[in-house]
Amino acid sequence: MTSTLTPRPTSTISTASTVSTPGTASTSSAVSTASTVSTPSAPAVHALRARFAGFGGPFWVVISGTAVNRIGNMVLPFLVFYLGSRHIATDRIPFVLGALGAGGLCGPVLGGLLTDRFGSRVAMVSGMLATAASQGLLFVAPDLATLVLATLALGAGGTLHMPGAGAVVAGAAQGERRRVAFGLFHWSINVGTAVAGAIGGFLAEHGYGLLFALDAATCLAYALLVATRLPRGTKRSGQQARGGYGVVLRDRLLLALLAPVVMGEAIYGLTEFSLPLAIRDHGLPPTVFGLAAVVNAALVVALQPIASVWLTRFDRGRLWAVACALIALGVALTGVASNAWEFALTVVVWSLGEVAGSGLYASMVADLAPEDAVGRYQGAAGWGRGLARFGSLLLGSAAYAVLGAAVLWWTALAVGLAGAGLALLVGAKVRARTS
């Protein structure tokens, strides 16, 4: 694929001519040459700025709001510790976590319908308000049944807004710039998550109420930002907008695309649910998992803005396959790591895969979607991610405990490489349909 980032030579010539000395050709030439040599990165900087410009106000509302919201995303990472402080028995915790995963399957489906019928604004505000309310219920829940209900609502509310946000991002750009837009969206999530990880542990030591209060506050702040700055959506009146998910289920290419999405996201989910078990079983402290989180966040935050632009020269399907393979390899290498630095090196491998794959399948889904079904298509992608997360949570931990760590890591490698192969095939089909 031809790169769109070729520097414009006229920019350099113009800069040189403004500083040359009239009547002295040799001096002018020397100054021109010096200017060109002394600022070799200027064209690249201008190109980078140009690639991030022109997305429009609604896009930046979503990007900034997502970062703010993710900074407060502290309840879920510390949920197990919170349940322990409530003296919930270990054999009861899976009921709570299972409810969280089930909610994550429901939220994107409902969010997609709301987006296509009433607009992104309604879907996103509803999701943020529901999340804040469910966090309050979770904090004051008097018994296990209420905790399960609260986490079910939290899982649904926390994903309800995503199709609406995805529709805004999809509408901000076309073609190759669309994948850059989705890459920036993913980057904003990681920026907020990195900050949350840095301060969440400190706040938890001073009481879990601080985590719940900050998380709910950032949800309400995001809702207020969307309600006041995002244009009001129009209600869909077309046949497809009233037809539920039939338009999605009839799109065989989209359904095929969801297969590598689920496979890849399931392997990535092991970094959240099974990596801590491996670190623990090697007799290492929880701070090693904190180190892994810091390495991942630092790499993604530092590399992704540049990579999302530079990687547009490569075909999406091939790049997605490479990303899936890197994630699978990095996760599988967890099985041979035994100390903090070795675990950190495995994180580097799968983090590079995360950077390479950022925004790829989301932009493909957006390209496949009819104009009045963007929300439902994004909802389908969100459902796939939720299914993968649910599977990683339940099957990953069960396989680790029952079959052993070696079986889990070898299976992760096999599934990840199979997903890479499917990504390559599906990517070619998407390219043929959308080109």
SSE map:
Layout: H1 9-17, H2 25-38, H3 42-52, H4 57-71, H5 79-85, H6 93-118, H7 120-140, H8 144-160, H9 162-171, H10 176-205, H11 208-229, H12 239-242, H13 246-249, H14 252-273, H15 275-281, H16 286-310, H17 316-332, H18 340-357, H19 360-368, H20 374-402, H21 405-434
Q: Could you name the CATH homologous superfamily of the largest domain? A: MFS general substrate transporter like domains
Give the SSE string. HHHHHHHHHHHHHHHHHHHHH
- Count the domains: 2
- Count of alpha and pi helical runs: 21
CATH fold-level name of the largest domain = Growth Hormone, Chain: A
CATH class of the largest domain: Mainly Alpha
How large a portion of the residues is in β-strands, by DSSP E? Answer: under 5%
Q: What's the alpha carbon Rg, rounded to whole Å?
A: 23 Å
Shape by Cα distribution = globular
Q: End-to-end distance, in Å?
A: 12 Å
For the largest beta-sheet, the strand count, sense and barrel status come to: none
Low-confidence segments, given as residue ranges, are: 1-40, 234-240
Assembly type = single chain
Q: Which structural class do the helices and strands define?
A: mainly alpha
What is the residue-averaged pLDDT?
85
Helix content: over 70%
CATH architecture of the largest domain: Up-down Bundle
Q: How many beta-strand elements?
A: 0
Domain Major facilitator superfamily (MFS) profile: 50-431
GO molecular function, one term: transmembrane transporter activity
Region (Disordered): 1-33
InterPro entries: MFS (IPR011701), MFS_dom (IPR020846), MFS_trans_sf (IPR036259), MFS_Transporters (IPR050171)
